[in-house]
């Protein structure tokens, strides 16, 4: 059995004809069958690997052309290049981190039968094990001069063309192919892991405890968002996928865990765009005897430390080559003052809904179920948000849109809340937490009235949470930050690129 040169194998995007796809798969399945018939294995339980491709490169990368190491290794990787030239075959093996090494199979070293089987049975995409001496080729290419080889896993479908960029749709739907093909895709995974480790180190240094709270909840709350609804057969009850861990983390603070955080998944049944995903990773943290000022300092440290961990500097380089400075002290502006300056109209917490609605109408700003708070926030986004370039804490929000936040200690009509904007999008939000159970009940009642009026994002009255507050929650500061958006700030990529396996319709 023979096959066309593996380097000419078409990519999945080129295989538009189903018959051609079937033919490609059939050829490889026949090779799998022949391997098994010969007594070999197409998918062995293990191969005798002695080291990794990155380790070989680190140890022997200094070899000069035609120099030998005298060391025999056993390495494995995915075949990403293959050239058969008579008595000598060349194959490039790629490890999971993208590192590559050349393996050379010669008639003299592996024998006629083994070389013929290699030419017949090995394709691009296969996982291949080789053992042999580490050398540098005549052209100075670090290589393994193989004395034996074995297929570690037979690929039944062909790899994409490694020299042609995959479409975004293909990359999102087949992330495993994206990881094989693109260095950037692999780097984002490493960057995310390094950022997550940095966040946990920062929290540990500040004596925070990490906990886990329920994702299935009988009452959704902690944010203004539309939930996903499901049903428990075991309990015969309606349940909600959580939109935020806030109300349970606050229970933990009531119970005496004074510094607590969680990194986990949230679900919001809303739109998807370049900065929103229905399923996303969220960080929330609460600190007893803190407030929105101390929690802002914490948030700045978390992000700056993450930048140092992934970039070695507070200046990060985005995917398009832009440098963005996350260092120094970040700007702090008032929502009402910045809106007044940008719009040319003085807007305060006392400005009436009619006046705000008139301004929104003039500017073409549409607001669903408008009240003072929603109008102010939508107008602020219209007039101010687009002009923010540096990392900026936007302070002091309308009370109507922040039902879980303490009233401002000196400015009537607003609450002690900030939103952090980086790259023009909201990355995090922080509060001086509302811990008065009487006022919290009043806020929940207002939210329930909004829900009855048709606001799908309004929170419900949560008696269990109110009962916890009645046992006494200390003055606290709290914050929430989207992990996917943190990666956007560090890499300059869209949200789907920062999620390993994004939801695709």
UniProtKB/TrEMBL annotation:
Binding site for Mg(2+) 1: 419, 426
Main location: cytoplasm
Residue ranges annotated for the Aminoacyl-transfer RNA synthetases class-II family profile domain, each copy included: 197-502
CDD domains hit by this protein: LysRS_N
Lineage: Bacteria, Bacillati, Actinomycetota, Actinomycetes, Micrococcales
Quaternary structure and partners: Homodimer.
Positions that bind Mg(2+) 2: 426
HAMAP family: Lys_tRNA_synth_class2
GO terms of molecular function: ATP binding; lysine-tRNA ligase activity; magnesium ion binding; tRNA binding
Keyword match Magnesium: yes
Species for this entry: Herbiconiux oxytropis
TM region(s), chain numbering: none
Protein family membership: Belongs to the class-II aminoacyl-tRNA synthetase family.
Catalytic activity, EC: 6.1.1.6
Name of this chain's protein: Lysine--tRNA ligase
UniProt-listed PROSITE patterns: AA_TRNA_LIGASE_II
Entry-linked PANTHER family: LYSINE--TRNA LIGASE, CHLOROPLASTIC_MITOCHONDRIAL (PTHR42918:SF15), LYSYL-TRNA SYNTHETASE (PTHR42918)
